[in-house]
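This entry is listed as follows:

___
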Amino acid sequence: MDCGNHDNDPIGTFSCWHNLISMSKWDDKLKIYDTLVAMSPNFERKGKTVPYTSANGYMFSFINKEGELGIRLSKESGKAFKEKYDATEFRSHGAVMKDYVLIPNELLNDLETLSTYLEESFQHVMSLPPK
């Protein structure tokens, strides 16, 4: 992304650099997500603009436009996850995603633990009736 010359438009300069920083953070999250997904032989990453995983006709993880990672868990597991990690519901485009939890940034550094949750998410959607 070229920020161009914004000598007479400081807000344009800020906006451009803010977008570059945001894009960089999103790209960093995408690399983490790709590494996480690659840890399982049961599924692969799909999607170009909205990276996601799916099985049995259900999406079970994805990165929203803000670069946040959400994983779909059973109601019981989701509740336990939220309590354990002080996590919240996952939102995308302003809507609460049913049965999804927002993965806290701190947990992104623990791919072993995250891979366990992602595998649990996969098993959960495989237990649902196929779509």
Observations:
- Residues 10-126 form a domain with the Aspartate Aminotransferase, domain 1 fold (CATH 3.90.1150).
- The two ends are 40 Å apart (CA to CA).
- The beta strands are 52-55, 58-63, 69-72, 89-92, 95-102.
